[in-house]
Design goal:
63% helix; 288 residues; mainly alpha
Length: 288
């Protein structure tokens, strides 16, 4: 890469990002380090593979019970179809704390591969950015994809945050064009059916789609009923695909108890939420 005057020349940023991410991922694939969420997702692979769907949200052999929405459960089931060819022992519900090197490498590989959704979404973000802000968009994309926090949490803590961020960013990028507003809403509804922690964004999405898609430009009293029906029906269809089987089985109360465990506390009673609660409180006090 070289500089000529004020112009920076070299390989495209997308290529640099992809190569850097690839190198980091290859290094991590040779590492056997792991943390709590490794066993969480191994157990979910076992639950969705070994048990019928009517038992998924009741199984409690492990303390790490299935507590994500149905789309994520279906996602785990799909991963389990490949996992059985790697090490079938990881798919046994009673194989608590099972951590063969094949299992560790398989789970880390699935995290890295699913982050291709993030790569694609960031590419779409850069491509859809105005020419005047292309450089800033490139910088943001690079910072997000190569974030140490993301790499450490996803690839060592074995979460699929990159995958989820990819869906979220794709939804935001779609919202940049009026013709894609409906798809943006559908994408966000899909995200909620993967991980309900994103519910805190729902009011913002509701207000945005209501104003830009369902109401006229000149007046908030100019309701576009066709658009309202399309949006409502589309979101209802997404939730029906996710929760429909459990509604049919009469298991919605149990499923909702798992998603919102008020009796246990919405945060696990370990050190992390307590530390962050103290930090957040102290931060607010110091500001004022």
């Amino acid at each position: 890469m070289c500089c000529r005057g004020d112009k920076l020349e070299g390989p495209p940023l997308a290529s640099v990002v992809s190569q850097s991410h690839y190198v980091n991922s290859c290094k991590e694939l040779t590492d056997n380090s792991k943390s709590t969420d490794f066993e969480v997702h191994r157990n979910w692979l076992a639950i969705t593979h070994s048990l019928s769907i009517d038992k998924w949200y009741f199984e409690e052999t492990s303390e790490w019970t299935l507590d994500y929405p149905p789309f994520f459960a279906y996602f785990e089931w799909l991963l389990a179809q490949a996992a059985r060819y790697v090490d079938a022992a990881m798919l046994q519900v009673n194989s608590l704390d099972y951590d063969s090197w094949q299992t560790i490498h398989f789970q880390r590989a699935t995290v890295i591969l699913t982050e291709l959704t993030l790569v694609y979404s960031l590419y779409a973000f850069v491509q859809s950015s105005p020419v005047a802000t292309k450089k800033q968009a490139h910088a943001v994309a690079l910072a997000l994809l190569l974030s140490p926090a993301l790499l450490i949490i996803d690839h060592i803590h074995f979460q699929y945050n990159g995958f989820m961020y990819g869906i979220l960013i794709r939804s935001i990028v779609l919202a940049r064009k009026k013709s894609n507003l409906l798809l943006s809403g559908i994408m966000f509804a899909t995200l909620l059916c993967f991980k309900h922690i994103y519910l805190y964004l729902a009011p913002a999405y509701f207000a945005f789609l209501l104003r830009t898609y369902c109401l006229g430009r000149r007046s908030i009293f100019d309701m576009k009923f066709t658009h309202c029906i399309k949006l409502g029906a589309s979101i209802a269809a997404v939730f029906a695909l996710a929760f429909g089987p459990f509604v049919y089985l009469g298991q919605m109360p149990q499923l909702l108890t798992r998603l919102f465990p008020f009796s246990r506390g919405l945060c696990h009673a370990y050190w992390a939420p307590n530390v962050w609660a103290i930090y957040s409180f102290s931060d607010r006090v110091l500001i004022y």
